């Protein structure tokens, strides 16, 4: 492992710039007409000088959606590896990461009305007292694909790249919860992290979500400190985070320092209202939905990506190309994968590999030959182990634009 004590050059540099010409200035009085800025709308990323905004430790070709908080997604062609490289994993923040992190002083406290006792662990305690596990787990933002909804939904306009499947290492959450002890009425847990609210108010919690105890007690649910055998990057939760594969990434709290065991559904910030919820019954696009008619998102739906070739590629007429990509299905496995080059009129079955472990994505490939010169689209469609397939159009509209699992398409030209 590296990073005994991690400084935050990217973060510090960002704040320094933000105080002069960066997006930070949008929050100062110079934000002309700021009082009229619609609630919930996110400011457009602001160029900081002549150099592009680059996240420390991340690939330069990630697409920056926001710089305060920092949010960035990965183009499909960068997600071609079986195990997502750390620098290619998307970044999703709601607040500002901690400025300085000392892993030697980091603690995790577990308590709550349904805990039999309150216990605090150092990072060294967790590593020494519990068995270490590693799993490849799919992490996807619940709003991945939001940009395709119409009427548009507020929030980061993710396209396809708020997903990845690295190798995560840590201790099983259930082992630590059992060490603390659960009362018989325990039904849910919630997390708290060390990030700071955008307002700067240290008493304001940025986000505190959670999962049912049943999900927490799964074999693959981790308290993780490493990704791909290295310390977590700061933007992905250094030094400690939760990892719940197959569920919205917002459940996998970063900069983890507190877990509460609850006798009811956790009620922290972004657990209620319309946050990470969809209408319990389908609604017409744009329809108003009462908060009490919204249900919490749990397992993510079946979905796939074409990671090779890159959209916009040019082929020769006689050329045969093997397209490939990734497919995943929340708590389930992907059962089959199909590809079409005639806009869904016919489908060809792709080769599909088994997952490295439960809740990991699966690689697929399919050799294609194009009959004539011209413009083509390659469509990919996955079907999960319960027989549910990806829709070819954007699925059920919802106010916050969650769970878009429409078929991925790329364009190719044959000449």
SSE arrangement:
Layout: H1 9-18, E1 63-67, E2 70-73, E3 107-111, E4 119-122, H2 123-129, E5 132-136, E6 139-140, E7 163-164, E8 167-172, H3 173-180, E9 188-193, E10 210-212, H4 213-216, E11 222-227, E12 230-231, E13 241-243, E14 256-262, E15 277-279, E16 294-296, E17 303-308, E18 313-315, E19 320-328, E20 334-340, E21 348-349, E22 351-352, E23 362-369, E24 374-384, E25 408-414
Parallel strand pairs: 3-14, 18-25
Antiparallel strand pairs: 1-2, 3-4, 5-8, 6-7, 8-11, 9-10, 9-14, 11-12, 11-13, 15-16, 17-19, 19-23, 20-21, 20-24, 22-23, 24-25
Could you characterize the architecture of this molecule?
With 415 residues, the chain is mainly beta. The chain has four helices and 25 strands. The chain has helices at residues 9-18, 123-129, 173-180, 213-216, and strands at residues 63-67, 70-73, 107-111, 119-122, 132-136, 139-140, 163-164, 167-172, 188-193, 210-212, 222-227, 230-231, 241-243, 256-262, 277-279, 294-296, 303-308, 313-315, 320-328, 334-340, 348-349, 351-352, 362-369, 374-384, 408-414. The strands form seven sheets. It has a five-stranded mixed β-sheet with strand order 4-3-14-9-10. Strand 20 and strand 21 (348-349) form a beta hairpin. The protein is globular.
> Strands across the major sheet, in which order?
4-3-14-9-10
Mean pLDDT: 90
User: SSE order, as H and E?
Assistant: HEEEEHEEEEHEEHEEEEEEEEEEEEEEE
Please state roughly what percent of the residues sit in beta strands, choosing from under 5%, 5-15%, 15-25%, 25-35%, 35-45% or over 45%. Answer: 25-35%
Oligomer: single chain
* Radius of gyration over all CA atoms, rounded: 22 Å
Structural class: mainly beta
Alpha carbon gap, first and last residue: 50 Å
């Amino acid at each position: 492992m590296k990073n005994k004590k991690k400084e935050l050059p990217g973060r510090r540099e960002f704040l320094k710039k933000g105080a002069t010409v960066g997006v930070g200035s949008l929050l100062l009085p110079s934000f002309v007409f700021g009082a009229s800025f619609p609630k919930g709308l996110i400011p457009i990323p602001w160029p900081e000088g002549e150099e592009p905004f680059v996240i420390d430790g991340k690939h330069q070709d990630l697409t920056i959606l926001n710089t305060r908080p920092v949010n960035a997604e990965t183009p499909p062609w960068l997600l071609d590896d079986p195990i997502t490289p750390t620098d290619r994993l998307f970044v999703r923040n709601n607040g500002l990461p901690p400025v300085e992190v000392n892993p030697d002083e980091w603690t995790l406290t577990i308590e709550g009305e349904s805990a039999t006792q309150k216990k605090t662990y150092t990072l060294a305690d967790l590593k020494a007292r519990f068995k270490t596990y590693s799993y490849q787990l799919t992490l996807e933002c619940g709003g991945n694909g939001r940009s395709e909804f119409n009427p548009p939904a507020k929030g980061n306009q993710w396209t396809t790249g708020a997903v990845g499947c690295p190798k995560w290492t840590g201790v099983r959450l259930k082992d630590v919860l059992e060490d603390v002890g659960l009362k018989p009425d325990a039904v849910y847990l919630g997390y708290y992290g060390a990030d700071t609210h955008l307002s700067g108010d240290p008493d304001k919690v940025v986000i505190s979500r959670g999962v049912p105890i049943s999900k927490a007690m799964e074999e693959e649910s981790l308290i993780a400190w490493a990704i791909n055998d290295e310390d977590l990057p700061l933007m992905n939760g250094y030094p400690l985070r939760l990892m719940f594969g197959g569920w919205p990434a917002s459940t996998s709290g970063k900069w983890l320092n507190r877990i509460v065991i609850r006798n009811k559904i956790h009620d922290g910030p972004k657990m209620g209202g319309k946050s990470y919820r969809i209408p319990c019954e389908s609604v017409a696009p744009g329809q108003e939905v009462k908060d009490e008619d919204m249900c919490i998102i749990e397992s993510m739906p079946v979905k796939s990506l074409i990671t090779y070739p890159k959209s916009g590629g040019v082929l020769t007429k006689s050329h045969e190309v093997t397209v490939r990509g990734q497919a995943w299905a929340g708590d389930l496995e992907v059962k089959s994968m199909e590809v079409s080059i005639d806009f869904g009129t016919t489908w060809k079955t792709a080769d599909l590999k088994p997952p490295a472990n439960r809740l990991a994505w699966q690689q697929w490939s399919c050799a294609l030959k194009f009959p004539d010169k011209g413009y083509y689209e390659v469509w990919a469609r996955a079907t999960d182990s319960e027989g549910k397939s990806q829709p070819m159009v954007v699925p059920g509209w919802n106010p916050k634009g969650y769970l878009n699992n429409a078929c991925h398409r790329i364009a190719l030209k044959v000449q």
